């Protein structure tokens, strides 16, 4: 659940800022961001945020926003899995609208090129250092077979695998992610220490054993991000 809460916060912030718009359901003029490609059938943790909100509401109603709860939950999830802590300034306002198009267009996708990912970060006022640091959150969590199948079988549309993917690691992935079928099979983003927030993710990239294309390109497609 820690990875899911951290992901919720990230996907929220990349649309219209950290305003909890990702929590809104469809209704009236609102088309929920939960229906976007990055979130559909994969975003989790909504019930946890609801439970936290209900508990806070009993103690101090109309005081703490859902946006602040998301930010705090992301920070605490990181700390509880062994990662760093940081100060979370409070006072965010909850948004009353959602942006399905913003979620589809602004959130980095697993098959994006390095330049596309960096551009999406820059649109949020972030730079290449932020990109590398925040990508390190993939030291926890999972991804479905559909998120990286192209790397195994048809990376460039020529029926060939990604030549930057370690062959022994690729063989392991083949077993539960075939050309067809197994779409919902899940794989650790960091196969070394999947529930511990550490630097194994970056070590995996250096060994060409990043699971997602969007992860591995940090090491193979840009000299500056590789040095970081």
TrEMBL record:
Binding site residues for Ca(2+) 1: 12, 15, 17, 19, 21, 33
Organism in which the protein naturally occurs: Gossypium laxum
UniProt protein name: peroxidase
Annotated heme b binding sites: 138
UniProt keyword Heme present: yes
Record-listed E.C. numbers: 1.11.1.7
CDD domains with a match to the protein in the record: secretory_peroxidase (cd00693)
Organism lineage string: Eukaryota, Viridiplantae, Streptophyta, Embryophyta, Tracheophyta
Keywords: Calcium, Disulfide bond, Heme, Iron, Metal-binding, Oxidoreductase, Peroxidase
Domain annotation Plant heme peroxidase family profile: ranges: 1-228
Function: Removal of H(2)O(2), oxidation of toxic reductants, biosynthesis and degradation of lignin, suberization, auxin catabolism, response to environmental stresses such as wounding, pathogen attack and oxidative stress. These functions might be dependent on each isozyme/isoform in each plant tissue.
Disulfide links within the chain: 13-18, 145-177
Amino-acid positions noted as binding Ca(2+) 2 in the UniProt annotation, renumbered to this chain: 139, 190, 198
SUPFAM superfamilies: Heme-dependent peroxidases (SSF48113)
Binding site for substrate: 108
InterPro entries in the record: Haem_peroxidase, Haem_peroxidase_sf, Peroxidase_pln, Peroxidases_AS, Peroxidases_heam-ligand_BS, Secretory_peroxidase
